[in-house]
Amino acid sequence: MRLPILFVALSCFFFINASPISSTLYTMNDAPTVRRQISRYPFCPSQPATEALQQTIFADFINALYIQKNVTGAYNAHVDVNLIEHSPFGPQGRDANAAVLLNIIPSAQFTVLRSNFDANFGFIHLEIAGSPEPTALADIYRMNGTCIEEHWDVTQVKPSNATNPIAMF
Known about the structure:
The chain is of the alpha+beta class. It is built from four helices and five strands; from the N terminus they run H-H-H-E-H-E-E-E-E. Strands 1-5-4-3-2 form a five-stranded mixed β-sheet. Helix 1 crosses helix 2, helix 2 runs antiparallel to helix 3 and helix 3 runs antiparallel to helix 4.
């Protein structure tokens, strides 16, 4: 098991209070039980959040979208309806963006290589299986409080004549 996947799995054990999110600033100490999944709650519209809580919410988003491949659930719970999309071919808005991903993510074969969250920005680095060569994908997300509001991505196919043995991954 790769370390980032282990991180995602372990981070999903940190959860917030069972009551709906209000304008209260939640912290990790609000968890009444470690077995309740935070993905049961919509995090949008945004509410104030500590960076520790943002990290947990982002890890839950990664788990829902990239591990469980639950595009609709991940987007409905974590992404603002007015998502700002910077991909040159991606549509604006949560629902239009999720509709595109519903045609890609469920059948895609990829490996989560690493992820991180710092100062309202989260990123994930993926290796997407391809023939003859794999593709590297980096997704970057900006959060406002509890909600993802902006997205960028960068993709690159590994050149078949790459001379660096650890190129891109």
